[in-house]
Amino acid sequence: KRQDSxxxxxxxxxxxxxxETDVGGQKLNLDxxxxxxxxxxxxxSLSASSQANHHVFNPSSSSxxxxxxxxxxxIIYGDGSGASGTVGTDTVTVGGTTVKxxxxxxxxxxxxxFVQDANDGLLGLSFSNINTVRPTQQKTFFDNAKSSLTxxxxxxxxxxxxxxAYDFGAINARHHTGSVAYTxxxxxxxxxxxPSTSYKVGGTKHSLSGVSAIADTGTxxxxxxxxxxTTYYDAVQGASFDNQQGGYTFPxxxxxxxxxxxxxxxxxxTIPGSLINFAPIDNSGRTCFGGIxxxxxxxxxxxxxxxxxxxxxxxxxxxxxxxxxxxx
Length: 328
Ligand SMILES: O=C(CN1CCCCC1)Nc1ccc2c(c1)OCO2
Known about the structure:
The chain is mainly beta. It is built from five helices and 26 strands. The two termini are 27 Å apart. The protein binds N-(1,3-benzodioxol-5-yl)-2-(piperidin-1-yl)acetamide. N-(1,3-benzodioxol-5-yl)-2-(piperidin-1-yl)acetamide binds next to strand 3. N-(1,3-benzodioxol-5-yl)-2-(piperidin-1-yl)acetamide (F41) binds next to strand 3.
């Protein structure tokens, strides 16, 4: 039960946090994603152009890799990106936590966004019921590891523009302040999902009846219904929806109100306005892109991505299951 460990998570381009992961003795920088359930890697099965600028996994160079005959996978993410390929098993180590016989999905196709991205693949940390391997669905790294951990939990510490960490098996008191508040999780859809039926802009409360949210470390921004997005940016001087940028922008000098979201039936998580200035849209530094944007057509759902985790330590506890949060 002493496979507990903490693995550094490095911010990459403000878009994602990468964790160095050992797959069959080969080191790859993977995007840890609580919003999906597949562990997949760039592999030597990809075209040379797709492999460019990435570390790729070569199954022939791993003495512990075993092909999974007849198994395939194919995934499409909420942002339209995707990947697909074949499957095997290998020994995977993250920090000091090792899983033998972990399903490792080898990409032989990846969408253009992934070729541009800095990651060498993804390590899914959602529930295993949305893993895409067929004909036999596979388990996530955490699902396989949890029985060897002191507690069946992992936690995400993702501070802005600083090295963070994924803690496995124990909460790391150095990664949060105050006490951790919890809400029950509905895992039936595969996500770390909970009701989130109201929000506050600069202290004024607004309801989002019937809405649920997912805690999603693989999504960069905080994505929420159009009504909430409009309410927020109505409170920001000079903000407007920029079709070219595909979201709300505002003068980088604008003062941004805090945005609080209700987590379950407990209290609110408050994201300070300063964390809602995501990035300048160009090198002039005049206009900035907002960290709160529309979730689009996914009715009744909010997606709490890294902008949320820049303010809150997230505890993903399989006992429950439940989601915990505490200011970092
Ligand atoms: O697709 C993702 C996250 N995804 C994680 C794996 C890498 C590529 C990005 N998030 C997302 C992005 C936009 C969305 C959405 C979800 O739901 C509606 O709009």
